[in-house]
Amino acid sequence: VNSNKMTAIVQEDNELKKLLGNPAKNAGEDNLMGPPQSTNVPRPSTSQNVNPQSMISPMTPANSTKEVIEPCLQNVVSTVNLGIELPLMYINTRTRNSEYNPARFTGLIMRIRNPRATALIFHSGKLVCTGARCEEDSYLATRKFARIIQKLGFGIQNIVATCDLKFPIKLENLNHIHGQFSSYEPELYPGLIYRMVSPRVVLLIFVNGKIVLT
User: Fold this and answer.
1) Which tens digit of pLDDT belongs to each residue from 179-202?
2) Which numeric CATH code is attached to 76-161?
3) Is 76-161's fold the same as 171-213's?
4) From start to end of the chain, where are the E strands?
5) Domain ranges for the chain
6) Cα dihedral 169, 173, 177, 179 sign
């Protein structure tokens, strides 16, 4: 009996040694995940040198059309010196579409419809034309405002206007091409004097692009 007990004990010890010697197998039998055999993460084979960028399919960029931005004139302002002092209250009572409130504004405001423009007329004879959409309309409106004032009995002998071309002018070349109409002596006067025949207008042209018409 003792020998049978000893044999059973030896067998149990052998079974325990087997179980302790192979824990992963025991965990697999109990449907439990055992500890990983290695911490290395499997990676794709790099036996062939493949450029990863070659695996990206090229994309055709969308047709990008550049929008051309064109400036649009919204307002042209011109100034005129009528050369005489004006009684603004008298002009206001004798003309239509005009308003004069010296408590709010020192100038008289006059409007015309064709071309659509507004004039700011001051006692000194200065006239500012605003609201025109192009230079031609501004020039025509200025002459109409001056004509309205002239019809009231004010003898306007001369009109002086100014404009700015916003770009420099080569006065030497202009004088060389239009020598029969112009005179340019920078030692005596910095501007070029240009005399037009029709209409009879004298222009004082400066190198910075500013012009005085008289």
Assistant:
1) 899 999 989 899 999 998 888 889
2) 3.30.310.10
3) yes
4) 76-81, 98-99, 108-112, 117-121, 126-132, 160-164, 182-183, 192-195, 202-205, 210-213
5) 76-161, 171-213
6) positive
Q: Checking phi first, is residue 80 left (phi over 0); if not, alpha (psi -120 to 50) or beta?
A: beta
Hey, what's the torsion of the CAs at 6, 9, 13, 14, to 10 degrees? 70
Residue 32 has pLDDT above 60, yes or no: no
pTM for the model stands at: 0.51
Beta bridge partners of 127: 80, 121
pLDDT digits (tens, 9 = 90+) for 60-117: 665 656 666 677 777 888 888 888 899 999 999 999 889 999 999 999 999 999 989 9
Secondary structure letter of residue 68 according to DSSP: P
Contact between 134 and 85 (Cβ < 8 Å): no
Is residue 192 within 8 Å of residue 182, measured between CB atoms?
Answer: yes
Q: For the chain, what's the residue count?
A: 214
**Of the candidates 181, 163, 185, 162, the residue with the CA atom closest to the CA atom of residue 172:** 185
CATH topology for 171-213?
TATA-Binding Protein (3.30.310)
